[in-house]
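ingest -> validate -> predict -> emit
validate: passed (alphabet ok, no gaps, 83 aa)
predict: started
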Amino acid sequence: MNTINIKILFFGLLKTYFGSQITLPIQRGTTLRELLFQLKEKIPEVTEVLELCQLAVNSTLVDEDFLLFEPDEVAILPPFSGG
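emit:
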């Protein structure tokens, strides 16, 4: 089987566009960079926000070269300010 399912959690402004979570079928061997590219293609309005986000897989911060496996859970964390 060449596809796997990845759960993606969205926060902040991204929830407006994607909802709080989705499960996305992707090709086996996909990196986070490629996943972000797919999301940008799907909704171009979020491109700038996605480029500023931190990424976590299974609650661990990772970079865009991270290789995804089923049943990974990706969290896309936009910049936020505290107070």
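Residues 32-42 form the longest helix (11 residues).
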